[in-house]
Amino acid sequence: MYHYDVFISYLRTADPIARWVRNHFQPRLRELLDGNLDREVRVFFDGAVRVGDRWPDELRNALQRTRILVPVASGQYFYNEWCLAEWASMAHREKLAGGERPATLIYPVIYADSKNFPPFAHQRRWQNLTDWNHPYEHFQVSPKYIGFHDKMNEIAAEVEELISAAPPWRPDWPVLTPAPDDPPTSRVPKF
């Protein structure tokens, strides 16, 4: 059975992104989905992993039992082993679910720098949140936060549709662990 509706995937080692997800993106998405759905939404966010739990096992279990992946991507996202595994696992599941029109199980969000994404990532439609990628808590009291909240309302409505269209859970959903490519070399010379 599914245990989570949404798995938020992001580069946990990038402090600004981690703070933005923790302070703004995850709480708004959860709050808005809770308001839209007729039940309590379950969002996997790494902050839910308890101290002492085995990190890789928790991630694999959560990913296998989640309906929709919401990757929050930046230039380094696809060169991180865990981020790539989360994306590849859901992309493979889309193929396995099959049907006339395969299910969309990845709802990608741009935090920053989409020009360095690999070609397979550019084949998707993305939600661009670069106008609101302020990681600091005081962003919530800025005038720009209203626009962020409106955009999050739009995202929550679209994610809600994907949650309800997710294929039935299968115990054989794989969790893939492909090796990431090396990041591209900079096109700007360093002095």
Helical residues, percent: 25-40%
Radius of gyration: 17 Å
For the report, how would you describe the main beta sheet?
5 strands, parallel
Count of helical regions: 5
Question: What number is the mean pLDDT?
Answer: 89
Distance between the termini: 54 Å
Structural class call reads alpha/beta
- What amount of the residues lies in strands? 5-15%
- The helix/strand order is EHEHEHEHEH
Q: Total number of β-strand segments?
A: 5
Characterize the overall form.
globular
Unreliable residue stretches: none
Protein name: TIR domain-containing protein
Domain TIR: 2-139
Give descriptors for this structure.
single chain; 191 residues; 5-stranded parallel sheet
What is the element layout, followed by pairings?
Blueprint: E1 4-10, H1 15-36, E2 43-44, H2 55-64, E3 66-73, H3 81-97, E4 109-110, H4 119-122, E5 127-128, H5 144-165
Parallel strand pairs: 1-2, 1-3, 3-4, 4-5
Helix pairs in contact: 1-5
